[in-house]
UniProtKB/TrEMBL annotation:
InterPro entries: Crypto/Photolyase_FAD-like_sf, Cryptochr/Photolyase_FAD-bd, Cryptochrome/DNA_photolyase_1
Cofactor binding annotation: Binds 1 FAD per subunit.
Family that this chain belongs to: Belongs to the DNA photolyase class-1 family.
Requisite cofactors: FAD
Gene Ontology biological process: photoreactive repair
GO MF term list: damaged DNA binding; deoxyribodipyrimidine photo-lyase activity; FAD binding
UniProt cross-references to SUPFAM superfamilies, sorted A to Z: Cryptochrome/photolyase FAD-binding domain
UniProt keyword list: FAD, Flavoprotein
Record Gene3D superfamilies: DNA Cyclobutane Dipyrimidine Photolyase, subunit A, domain 3
Gene giving rise to this polypeptide: cry-dash_1
Protein name (Swiss-Prot/TrEMBL): Cryptochrome DASH
Spans annotated as Disordered: 131-152
Amino acid sequence: MTGVPFVDANMRELRLTGWMSNRGRQNVASFLTKDLGLDWRLGAEWFESQLLDHDVCSNYGNWNYSAGIGNDPRENRKFNMIKQAMDYDPQGDYVRQWVPELRSVPDGRVHMPWTLTPSVRRDIDYPQPMVRAPEWQRHAPGSAVGDGNQKR
Protein backbone atom coordinates (compact mmCIF):
# COMPACT_ATOMS: atom_id res chain seq x y z
CA MET A 1 0.00 0.00 0.00
CA THR A 2 1.25 3.43 -0.94
CA GLY A 3 -1.19 5.47 1.14
CA VAL A 4 -2.39 7.15 -2.07
CA PRO A 5 -5.94 5.84 -2.61
CA PHE A 6 -6.12 6.15 -6.41
CA VAL A 7 -2.80 4.33 -6.84
CA ASP A 8 -3.72 1.66 -4.30
CA ALA A 9 -7.12 1.08 -5.92
CA ASN A 10 -5.53 0.56 -9.33
CA MET A 11 -2.88 -1.78 -7.95
CA ARG A 12 -5.45 -3.87 -6.11
CA GLU A 13 -7.58 -4.13 -9.22
CA LEU A 14 -4.52 -5.33 -11.15
CA ARG A 15 -3.55 -7.87 -8.51
CA LEU A 16 -7.06 -9.27 -8.17
CA THR A 17 -8.24 -9.19 -11.80
CA GLY A 18 -5.13 -9.03 -13.97
CA TRP A 19 -6.38 -5.82 -15.57
CA MET A 20 -5.99 -2.07 -15.12
CA SER A 21 -7.42 0.76 -17.23
CA ASN A 22 -5.08 2.78 -19.42
CA ARG A 23 -5.63 5.82 -17.18
CA GLY A 24 -4.70 3.71 -14.17
CA ARG A 25 -1.58 2.43 -15.91
CA GLN A 26 -0.50 5.99 -16.69
CA ASN A 27 -1.09 7.14 -13.13
CA VAL A 28 0.70 4.21 -11.54
CA ALA A 29 3.65 4.63 -13.92
CA SER A 30 3.88 8.34 -13.15
CA PHE A 31 3.67 7.71 -9.40
CA LEU A 32 6.40 5.06 -9.48
CA THR A 33 8.82 6.98 -11.68
CA LYS A 34 8.12 10.62 -10.79
CA ASP A 35 6.81 10.64 -7.21
CA LEU A 36 8.84 7.71 -5.87
CA GLY A 37 11.78 8.16 -8.24
CA LEU A 38 12.08 4.43 -8.90
CA ASP A 39 13.39 2.73 -12.03
CA TRP A 40 10.62 2.27 -14.60
CA ARG A 41 11.76 -1.32 -15.22
CA LEU A 42 10.46 -2.34 -11.78
CA GLY A 43 6.95 -1.31 -12.82
CA ALA A 44 7.24 -2.77 -16.30
CA GLU A 45 8.34 -6.13 -14.91
CA TRP A 46 5.52 -6.13 -12.34
CA PHE A 47 2.93 -5.30 -14.99
CA GLU A 48 4.36 -8.04 -17.21
CA SER A 49 3.85 -10.56 -14.41
CA GLN A 50 0.29 -9.40 -13.61
CA LEU A 51 -1.47 -8.17 -16.76
CA LEU A 52 -3.66 -10.63 -18.63
CA ASP A 53 -3.48 -8.38 -21.69
CA HIS A 54 0.28 -7.87 -21.44
CA ASP A 55 1.97 -6.93 -24.68
CA VAL A 56 5.74 -6.45 -24.56
CA CYS A 57 5.84 -3.53 -26.99
CA SER A 58 2.92 -1.65 -25.44
CA ASN A 59 4.00 -2.27 -21.87
CA TYR A 60 7.65 -1.34 -22.22
CA GLY A 61 6.87 1.49 -24.64
CA ASN A 62 4.37 3.04 -22.24
CA TRP A 63 6.71 2.70 -19.27
CA ASN A 64 9.52 4.34 -21.29
CA TYR A 65 7.19 7.17 -22.22
CA SER A 66 6.02 7.66 -18.62
CA ALA A 67 9.60 7.67 -17.39
CA GLY A 68 10.54 10.29 -19.99
CA ILE A 69 12.96 8.16 -21.99
CA GLY A 70 12.98 6.60 -25.44
CA ASN A 71 11.50 8.04 -28.64
CA ASP A 72 9.31 11.13 -28.25
CA PRO A 73 9.61 11.24 -24.46
CA ARG A 74 7.83 13.81 -22.34
CA GLU A 75 10.55 14.11 -19.75
CA ASN A 76 8.74 16.45 -17.39
CA ARG A 77 5.31 14.84 -17.63
CA LYS A 78 4.15 14.10 -14.12
CA PHE A 79 0.58 13.26 -13.22
CA ASN A 80 -0.91 14.94 -10.17
CA MET A 81 -2.40 11.91 -8.41
CA ILE A 82 -5.03 13.91 -6.55
CA LYS A 83 -6.19 15.88 -9.60
CA GLN A 84 -6.33 12.67 -11.63
CA ALA A 85 -8.36 10.96 -8.91
CA MET A 86 -10.77 13.87 -8.65
CA ASP A 87 -11.15 14.08 -12.44
CA TYR A 88 -11.64 10.36 -13.08
CA ASP A 89 -13.26 9.26 -9.81
CA PRO A 90 -14.97 12.41 -8.51
CA GLN A 91 -17.23 10.69 -5.98
CA GLY A 92 -14.60 8.14 -4.95
CA ASP A 93 -16.67 5.13 -6.06
CA TYR A 94 -13.74 3.42 -7.76
CA VAL A 95 -11.46 3.95 -4.77
CA ARG A 96 -14.10 2.68 -2.34
CA GLN A 97 -14.65 -0.43 -4.48
CA TRP A 98 -10.97 -1.43 -4.36
CA VAL A 99 -9.92 0.14 -1.05
CA PRO A 100 -12.74 -0.82 1.31
CA GLU A 101 -10.81 0.64 4.25
CA LEU A 102 -11.96 4.03 2.92
CA ARG A 103 -15.67 3.26 2.45
CA SER A 104 -16.69 5.50 5.35
CA VAL A 105 -14.60 8.49 4.23
CA PRO A 106 -16.66 11.37 2.78
CA ASP A 107 -16.47 12.14 -0.95
CA GLY A 108 -14.45 15.33 -0.49
CA ARG A 109 -11.71 13.53 1.42
CA VAL A 110 -11.57 9.99 0.04
CA HIS A 111 -8.65 10.85 -2.24
CA MET A 112 -6.75 12.59 0.58
CA PRO A 113 -7.61 10.71 3.78
CA TRP A 114 -4.55 12.15 5.52
CA THR A 115 -6.47 15.46 5.67
CA LEU A 116 -9.04 13.95 8.04
CA THR A 117 -8.91 14.99 11.67
CA PRO A 118 -6.79 12.73 13.89
CA SER A 119 -9.86 11.48 15.75
CA VAL A 120 -11.47 10.31 12.48
CA ARG A 121 -8.22 8.90 11.04
CA ARG A 122 -7.74 6.80 14.16
CA ASP A 123 -10.74 4.68 13.13
CA ILE A 124 -9.47 4.07 9.57
CA ASP A 125 -6.96 1.30 8.94
CA TYR A 126 -5.14 2.95 6.05
CA PRO A 127 -1.52 4.14 5.90
CA GLN A 128 -0.18 7.65 5.52
CA PRO A 129 1.11 8.33 1.98
CA MET A 130 4.67 7.21 1.21
CA VAL A 131 5.28 10.63 -0.32
CA ARG A 132 3.30 13.85 -0.60
CA ALA A 133 3.89 15.84 -3.75
CA PRO A 134 3.59 19.60 -3.19
CA GLU A 135 1.07 19.98 -6.03
CA TRP A 136 -1.41 17.73 -4.23
CA GLN A 137 -2.08 20.43 -1.65
CA ARG A 138 -3.89 22.55 -4.25
CA HIS A 139 -6.71 20.01 -4.14
CA ALA A 140 -6.94 19.64 -0.37
CA PRO A 141 -10.26 20.37 1.31
CA GLY A 142 -10.33 24.04 2.27
CA SER A 143 -7.61 25.03 -0.21
CA ALA A 144 -7.92 28.05 -2.48
CA VAL A 145 -8.59 25.78 -5.47
CA GLY A 146 -11.53 24.01 -3.91
CA ASP A 147 -12.99 22.65 -0.73
CA GLY A 148 -12.81 19.03 -1.84
CA ASN A 149 -16.55 18.91 -2.35
CA GLN A 150 -16.78 20.63 -5.71
CA LYS A 151 -18.87 19.02 -8.41
CA ARG A 152 -16.96 17.85 -11.47
